[in-house]
Design a protein that fits this description.
Layout (H helix, E strand, L loop, with lengths): L13 H16 L6 H8 L3 H7 L3 H21 L10 H18 L1 H4 L7 H7 L4 H14 L5 H20 L5 H11 L1 H5 L7
Helix pairs in contact: 1-2, 4-5, 4-8, 5-10, 8-9
Length: 196
């Protein structure tokens, strides 16, 4: 650890540096096997500095999940292959399956959905404001008829659907597409579907 860890105007990058360090730890040790002391050591900072940015391990998880969710969603939805379909339903299915595939093939994301981490993921799916905002904005784009609270509830439900498919995968992409088509898309595409 160096004495100038936050010197020269780097304070604004400190949390990003910590999140970058924790990414490698999650791959090596699993999510539940990483302690705050290990995170501080991997980031090259003191535990006091780490706690200045993240009050506890849950806050670190929430920040990591929010950052990674935002990045993976941006990567997937900007991919021209995802937006190639002309039918909105097919475009959504392409996007959802591409998102699931991207998470599964990215080691620091896939580790979150291993059976040993299911409880952590379940807690995070209800606690990340970033993920909640992403999901709500996404839903509002397809269902502008919904009130803000209804769009938020539907967004939270979609997060649970995606977490479920990542934690308990279907028999293959075709089955997952069928599940999404039959049980998820109607809520996004059919404005006759009432959301309270």
């Amino acid at each position: 650890m160096t004495g100038d860890w936050l010197a020269d105007g780097r304070a604004e990058l400190a949390s990003e540096r910590i999140l970058d360090a924790v990414r490698a730890l999650f791959i090596d040790k699993g999510v539940s096997g990483v302690g705050m002391a290990e995170v501080a050591e991997a980031a090259g900072c003191s535990r006091a500095t780490l706690y200045r940015y993240f009050d506890n391990r849950q806050a670190l998880y929430v920040a990591f999940a929010g950052r990674e969710a935002r990045q993976v969603v941006e990567r997937v939805w900007r991919d021209p292959a995802v937006s190639a379909a002309t039918d909105p339903g097919e475009q959504l299915l392409d996007g959802f399956t591409a998102l699931i595939a991207e998470v599964r093939k990215t080691p620091h994301l896939a580790v979150w959905f291993a059976p040993a981490n299911a409880g952590i993921v379940a807690q995070l799916s209800n606690s990340s404001e970033v993920v909640d905002a992403l999901a709500t904005d996404f839903v509002s784009g397809f269902r502008p008829d919904l009130s803000a609270p209804a769009a938020r509830r539907l967004g939270q439900w979609f997060v649970r659907v995606m977490v479920s498919l990542l934690t308990l995968p279907g028999a293959g992409e075709d089955e997952e597409r069928m599940l999404l088509r039959n049980f998820a898309l109607p809520f996004l595409l059919d404005q006759r579907t009432t959301i309270e």
